[in-house]
Design goal:
By secondary structure, the chain is mainly alpha-helical. The chain has helices at 14-17, 30-39, 48-59, 63-80, 84-95, 99-113, 116-125, 129-139.
């Protein structure tokens, strides 16, 4: 039986205690993110330079391992969306001690770029018609 938290910092917030599943990131649920990434590969472009730099630092001259890790991370994004816990669990054995840092870095780059508030702004400003159309389809707005 787990022991009770010994400090207030260890106690879960009411939001965490009531969490029954994946939480929205940037106003969208992970499965919506996953579907967006599957339909709109270019949405992952902004994270690629950072990700490649990190993987090069980890793998050095073993470029094939870096490419394999990149592919694994992109696959996880397309399957799990921006569900950090699910992504970490999915990739922990492969990326080992680098998993959490890479997952949280990827999420911190992508989520502000395509947060729901930004997508809504784009819907109002007619900036990215393709992205807007995909979001409307996924969210059920016609």
């Amino acid at each position: 039986m787990p022991s009770p938290p010994s400090s207030p910092e260890e106690m879960a917030s009411p939001d965490e205690q009531g969490a029954a599943g994946p939480q929205a990131v940037g106003g969208l649920l992970p499965e919506v993110w996953a579907e967006l990434f599957q339909r709109q590969e270019h949405l992952l472009d902004p994270v690629l330079p950072w990700l490649r730099q990190q993987l090069e630092a980890i793998y050095g001259s073993q470029w094939w391992l870096a490419r394999s890790a990149e592919s694994t991370i992109l696959h996880a994004l397309c399957i799990r969306g921006l569900d950090g816990d699910a992504m970490v669990q999915m990739m922990q054995d492969y990326l080992e001690e680098y998993t959490e840092e890479l997952v949280h870095g990827v999420i911190s780059i992508i989520s502000p770029l395509y947060a729901l508030s930004n997508i809504r702004h784009r819907m109002d400003g007619n900036v990215d018609h393709e992205l807007v159309g995909q979001c409307r389809k996924i969210l059920g707005h016609h």
